[in-house]
Amino acid sequence: MKVLIYNEGVHEKENPEIFDTYPGGIHGYLKSFIETEDITVETVTLETIDKINDSLLEETDVLIWWGHKAHNDVKDETVELIHKHILKGMGLVALHSAHHSKIFKKLMGTTCNLKWRHDARERLWVINPYHPIAKDVPETILLEEEEMYGEMFDIPQPDEVIFLGWFNSGEVFRSGCTWQRGYGKIFYFQPGHETFSAFTKPEIQTIIKNAVNWACPIRNKKEIICENFKGLE
């Protein structure tokens, strides 16, 4: 399996203390626990985003996307290219503020707006324990510090809601949702604010690794065409 991780890398420049929590930046830290003998990982930041081209995406099984401050700096042509490959079967795992990324909003067709506030405590509940993304995940995970994301979350009805977040100020949020677009599988996962440490928790790492395996295409990627199809019978 080949995984491509995009992290815009802007926050790390503005706040070097992020490296204390995530050595190598968010993209480097994600790579450190995702890469195995069976999974190769390549990383891209906003500075190197031009490396994302047709041939790289053709080889990519799953794209992980983390962005926040620089969504609008991603070229529309890049978004169109990624969209094409997701429809052909490439998986997408959208993390935290990737809900406002151009590619996620294009796939959802909505604003993807939500309520937010910093410095909350979150209890993440598994509400679909038999889903592959919830494999080996405990019933509940406590995040002592996390950015609050609250409903309403302007997304189309998910195919599945796997995780529900509850915050100590009373809000709830659909924290882990799946969709299918074309042949591609999409998972959105809410935890992962840059100045907190959600990605260091083994339970969160398990969820992300499960999501990568779930989103990997089960067939060779194939473009969906509108063809004049000859009858079989």
Structural write-up:
By secondary structure, the chain is α/β, with parallel strands linked by helices. Helices cover 25% and strands 29% of the residues. The protein has helices at residues 10-14, 18-21, 25-34, 54-59, 76-88, 102-108, 202-215; strands spanning 2-7, 40-44, 62-66, 91-95, 115-126, 140-150, 160-167, 172-181, 184-189. The relative contact order is 0.17.
Summarize the structure.
The protein contains seven helices and nine strands, in the order E-H-H-H-E-H-E-H-E-H-E-E-E-E-E-H.
Report the β-strand fraction as a percent range. 25-35%
Q: What characteristic shape results from the CA principal axes?
A: globular
Report strand order across the widest sheet: 2-1-3-4-9-8-7-5-6
> How many beta-strand elements?
9
The Cα radius of gyration reads: 17 Å
Report the span from N to C terminus.
38 Å
Output mean pLDDT.
96
Question: Main β-sheet: number of strands, strand sense, barrel status?
Answer: 9 strands, mixed
Order of helices and strands: EHHHEHEHEHEEEEEH
The percentage helix is: 25-40%
